[in-house]
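Anyone up for a design puzzle?
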């Protein structure tokens, strides 16, 4: 607009000089006066026109900014009634097959429709979500909302719309680092987990266990007590389900070493992350629990026939002593039988310099399709915000609150005295290092690496490999990946 103003004034100046150059000096004086007056009027008119255009442009920019701001998590208000007439049909792709089957998902959508009756939410539950969701994502055939799978952060904007700036979201919600890229956040957890161990309180009492274990060595000894003094399976591996085995990876970071910068900042730069530190801590001793339990017959008789759905009632009834799963599973175990009061949740048995650490962090995160229509993006954002703040899903599933200041279930009382940490995000410029290392090494730590943990069960139960050999192999794979990707080894 400044350019328009300069051009207008230049044109006026040229007109003035042309008029001044015509006729004699005497005759030119009145004409010059008239020309000067005309020139002044033209200049004023040009300036007024330019200012009006500037104001119009500013108003347009402000309106565009308002529209952009309103299409964000913090930019919409689902409480004031202004969005209640929003009309759209959206599709939600998720992994909660159990909650689809028991009616929980439909019940929540029905409550949502009491407030937003014109937003139809079609849902599809996918069993092998970690793999199938990536395939669906690549084809674009997935709908409007999905739980974000293991994609590179560099690709987030290709698939998903930014839900808001990290700064805005972090004021009201927890665990906003997970899908942060640049200044924006692309995913909001449907719930948050604390990483511990499920156990049956009555089984522990019958086995003679009076205090919860705090180290891997103590835990193995307690599993032996369960085997010797009860009929319960000491540790249920859930081998056959596959995806349940990946739960062990969640303890690699601060739970096993007390360092909340390790998982996303230091692991990729560590030369031998699976070496034995010699003090019952670290990833080595985390996975050693599983190997030793299998090697000493402290698991189910046939690990190949475990039953994910069936094990819930088994733990509730006291047929299983312990299972290593996130806190999300607690509510399901309670609901699966007549003795929910016997279902307990304890910190993972690892102590670092006298302190037990608990990792709390976001579970799967809602992501909204960047290619959805504006109407569907708005409807999806309304649904995500309602699910996060009003559905009660997180609390009912036994999750840590995603909303800051939200209520947490009583199940976390066993964590009193522990240090609760969340993993710090990757360093700037290294956001995709862990994804790249996971892919290159094929270890997929905390990213669907179920088969590598199944390998531990197989080797422990059959004696086909020693635990030390497996850990040495993983270290070698990690070092090869570092060399291939030219990632500096700093630790």
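Challenge accepted. My sequence:
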């Amino acid at each position: 607009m400044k350019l328009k103003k300069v051009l207008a004034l230049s044109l006026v100046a040229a007109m003035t000089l042309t008029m001044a150059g015509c006729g004699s000096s005497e005759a030119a004086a009145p004409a010059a006066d008239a020309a000067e007056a005309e020139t002044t009027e033209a200049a004023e008119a040009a300036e007024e026109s330019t200012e009006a255009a500037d104001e119009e442009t500013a108003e347009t920019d402000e309106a565009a900014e308002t529209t952009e701001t309103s299409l964000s998590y913090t930019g919409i208000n689902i409480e004031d009634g202004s969005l209640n007439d929003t009309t759209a049909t959206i599709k939600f792709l998720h992994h909660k097959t159990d909650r689809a089957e028991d009616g929980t998902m439909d019940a929540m959508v029905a409550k949502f429709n009491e407030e937003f009756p014109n937003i139809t939410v079609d849902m599809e539950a996918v069993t092998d979500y970690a793999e199938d969701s990536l395939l669906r994502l690549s084809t674009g055939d997935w709908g409007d909302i999905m739980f974000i799978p293991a994609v590179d952060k560099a690709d987030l904007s290709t698939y998903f719309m930014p839900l808001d700036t990290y700064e805005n979201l972090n004021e009201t919600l927890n665990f906003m680092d997970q899908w942060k890229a640049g200044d924006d956040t692309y995913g909001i957890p449907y719930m948050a987990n604390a990483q511990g161990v499920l156990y049956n309180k009555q089984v522990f009492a019958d086995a003679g266990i009076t205090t919860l274990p705090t180290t891997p060595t103590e835990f193995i000894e307690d599993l032996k007590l369960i085997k010797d003094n009860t009929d319960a399976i000491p540790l249920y591996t859930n081998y056959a389900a596959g995806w349940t085995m990946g739960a062990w990876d969640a303890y690699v970071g601060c739970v096993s070493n007390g360092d909340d910068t390790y998982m996303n900042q230091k692991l990729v730069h560590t030369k031998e992350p699976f070496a034995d530190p010699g003090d019952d801590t670290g990833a080595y001793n985390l996975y050693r629990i599983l190997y030793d339990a299998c090697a000493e017959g402290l698991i189910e008789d046939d690990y190949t026939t475990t039953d994910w759905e069936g094990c819930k009632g088994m733990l509730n009834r006291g047929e299983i002593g312990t299972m290593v799963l996130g806190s999300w599973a607690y509510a399901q175990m309670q609901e699966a039988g007549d003795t929910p009061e016997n279902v307990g949740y304890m910190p993972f048995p690892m102590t670092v310099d006298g302190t037990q650490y608990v990792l709390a962090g976001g579970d799967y995160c809602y992501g909204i399709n960047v290619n959805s229509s504006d109407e569907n993006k708005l409807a999806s954002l309304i649904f995500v915000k309602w699910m996060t703040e009003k559905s009660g899903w997180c609390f009912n599933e036994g999750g840590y609150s995603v909303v800051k200041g939200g209520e947490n279930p009583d199940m976390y009382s066993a964590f009193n005295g522990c240090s609760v940490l969340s993993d710090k995000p990757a360093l700037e410029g290294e956001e995709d290092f862990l994804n790249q290392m996971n892919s290159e090494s094929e270890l997929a730590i905390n990213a669907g690496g179920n088969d590598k943990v199944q390998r531990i069960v197989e080797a422990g139960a059959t004696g086909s490999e020693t635990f030390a050999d497996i850990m040495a192999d993983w270290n070698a794979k990690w070092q090869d990946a570092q060399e291939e990707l030219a990632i500096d080894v700093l630790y």
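A detail worth pointing out: The chain has three domains: 2-58, 88-189+364-392, 194-362+426-485.
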